[in-house]
Amino acid sequence: MTTSDPDESDGTTASTSPDPGGFAEARTQPTTREDTSGARSVVESRDLAVYYGEEQALQPTSMEIPEHQVTAIIGPSGCGKSTFLRSINRMNDLIDVARVEGELLFRGKNVYDQDVDSVALRRRIGMVFQKPNPFPKSIRDNVAYGLKVQGEEVTDEKIERALKHAALWEEVKDKLDSSGLDLSGGQQQRLCIARAIAPDPEVILMDEPASALDPVATSKIEDLIEDLARDYTVVIVTHNMQQAARISDKTAVFLTGGELVEFGDTNKVFENPENQQVEDYITGKFG
Asked: Which ranges carry the ABC transporter domain (predicted)?
């Protein structure tokens, strides 16, 4: 995204008041990630296909994404990973030639129904982009923006909570009025995460959030993602298969042509894949 305020529609909120987007069901209480059995799905695609003009970027895809878990999406460049991710909160709506077929359910409702407010949807499903994109504002104002854009009251408590959730509070608590641009790359990305979670969304989408970071900063982001799954459902696109294996509970593998070829428990996908193409990709025989 290249707009000056790239997260204007990213921050999302999970209010208990009636939701204008039509998603009435509230999320469950956080669970321990060690017990992932019986987790219900919060997002489900049913034969979801995406086209850019006449080009089909995503073949009909059916998948259930479980609540309070990390779902990784992997595959070679151009395989439809980011297209699928952006379909979840209708970010593809911002592309004039994009067209969607099939269904994408959030809390049991198709997000592409005519009565769905896409802005309300993005209050519930936030997004973090590949490149850190803090605004040229103070650290405090960067986090506050995530609240203001959703019409929420800005309080010191909410800002502190978001920064703590993003594992950044201890590093910036004495310089909240300093520019977010003065932070390191890894800190900037965690600031963007704090901005996205400030309104308390239910789902956080991450499009290669550590690809532009050094190994130390990447490790901090990975630790943070695992912590976030206690309170949120996380869906992450990554080119780093080792990263997917480390941090995710479920893994989806897309291959060339926008086809989902395997989806399941991460350990099984990496250690005993059902599809030979997946095994070849994971072992580096192609991709």
From this structure: 43-282
